[in-house]
UniProtKB/TrEMBL annotation:
Disordered: annotated span: 1-27
Pfam families with a match to the protein in the record: HTH_21 (PF13276)
InterPro entries given in the database record: HTH-like_dom (IPR025948), Transposase_IS3/IS150/IS904 (IPR050900)
Protein name (Swiss-Prot/TrEMBL): HTH-like domain-containing protein
Record domain HTH-like: where: 27-83
Record's compositionally biased regions (Basic and acidic residues): 16-27
């Protein structure tokens, strides 16, 4: 490997005496444990923006880009929200079913009119043990 002798000597001197490192390298070394502490204290879900805000709240002045760079170096990432799942993708070209009752849901006698509606889940309605995929809500007229 071809390296200039002066570059090699400078690198070797920094290895022997860490005080010769740049001020940025020294500051990075001091900030890395703080960034990791804030990230772990918040269940490892905070991204660079929230870690930066929390550090400034704790009176540790640091730039956001510095937090981003150091988190990248440390391999720390915030949690990402998953993509919302669409259960039904409507076919716009398909014909709509006919409205055979013409939106008149009143019947003169029992069993004259049967109408139903199904739903995948209703916000605020929970099934057994707090799960949202418990009993469904059906509308009957």
């Amino acid at each position: 490997m071809r390296v200039a002798p002066s570059a090699y000597r400078r690198h070797a001197a920094r290895q022997r005496n860490p005080d010769l490192r740049s001020s940025r390298a020294k500051r990075d070394e001091a900030l890395e444990p703080e960034i990791r502490r804030v990230w772990e204290a918040n269940l490892q879900v905070y991204g660079a923006d929230k870690v930066w805000k929390q550090m400034n709240r704790e009176s540790i002045p640091v730039a956001r880009c510095t937090v981003e760079r150091l988190m990248r170096r440390l391999g720390l990432q915030g949690a990402r929200r998953g993509k919302t799942v669409r259960t039904t993708v409507p076919d716009r070209a398909a014909p709509c079913p006919l409205d055979l009752v013409n939106r008149q849901f009143n019947a003169d006698r029992p069993n004259q009119l049967w109408v139903s509606d199904f739903t995948y889940g209703v916000p605020g309605v929970q099934g057994e043990h707090g799960s949202s995929n418990g009993p469904r809500v059906y509308l009957e007229y």
